[in-house]
Amino acid sequence: MKALLLISILFTGAVITLNYDPAKPGLTILITRNTTEQEMAQVIKGANELHMKIVIEEAVYDEKGNLSSVQGEVEFPNGSTGTFTSNKVGKIILAQNINGTTSIKVKRRLI
Question: Max CA-CA distance within the chain?
Answer without folding.
Answer: 51
